[in-house]
Amino acid sequence: MDRPTALVPLHHVALGARGPEDVVADPHGRVLTGVADGRILRLHHLGDPLAVRAEPLADTGGRPLGLELLPDGGLLVCDAERGLLRVDTEHGTVRVLADSVAGQRLRFCSNAVALPDGTVYFTVSSRRHPLDRWIGDIVEHTGTGRLLRLAPEGREPEVVLDGLQFANGLAASADGSFLVIAETGSCRLTRFPLTGPRAGRAEPFADLPGMPDNLWREGTGGPVWVALASPRVPPLGLVHRAPPPVRRAAARTAVRAPYRPSRTIGVVAVDDRGRTVHHLTRRGSGFRMVTSVCATGDHLVLGSLWESGVAVCARPADR
Hints:
Keywords: Glycoprotein, Phosphoprotein. By secondary structure, the chain is mostly beta strands.
């Protein structure tokens, strides 16, 4: 991997609400995000700190995480409490698309992607730990993350891939032949072919310098932007190799202990061959725990499960 370059902050935009966990840019340069109180917001004029405005669009009644804009202007929302939702961004109505799988209630729905035929794939990060104890799953290394598929007009999703280490961000390749899955607990991206002789069999795609969270594809020909929620933590590797009782005990301790995110933040962009296009980092950042990144105009916009606003940074020059 090339040496990282500087992630250059420009300004911070306070939202008056905690945890804009995912950020996605629409075709008009606006950015959508969901915050801890359940609201979906649309942010205007992020490049101008004096003109920026947050427009409420809807309230999911839960905790929105991953977002996916649809061609008709609708919005898919992975809600940690309510499941997979569809939000009408014009009228603010919220419809539940899926809240159970195999007779069990969905918990910790994390990220979604929609294919042109209407099929929706989405991730469940953990079946053991809820969102407010996410660190327990990272430490215990449960491997209970899943990739699910909801057919067009389907009523209940099916599990197409199990055993993922905190399944998180999701993106489709430019040609729609495979998905890219972020496994936060293993600091890697995984490729899941949808067509061809290896369809349905997961394979390595890219190792990363930190823990990936949300993914966002920049248009059909652009790279996949990867938010790194944390740098690699070497002691975690030792815990992950320990027997299950030791990992469970360590997870219980981690859940109870005060958590303070690293002040080293980063984002990566990769192409459809898994090659790094950009690797940007900043040490000593006042904005912590970057869980999402999207590009709009000359800017990168960072979201965070931890912060009460978004950060606007300079976009790097294309290579």
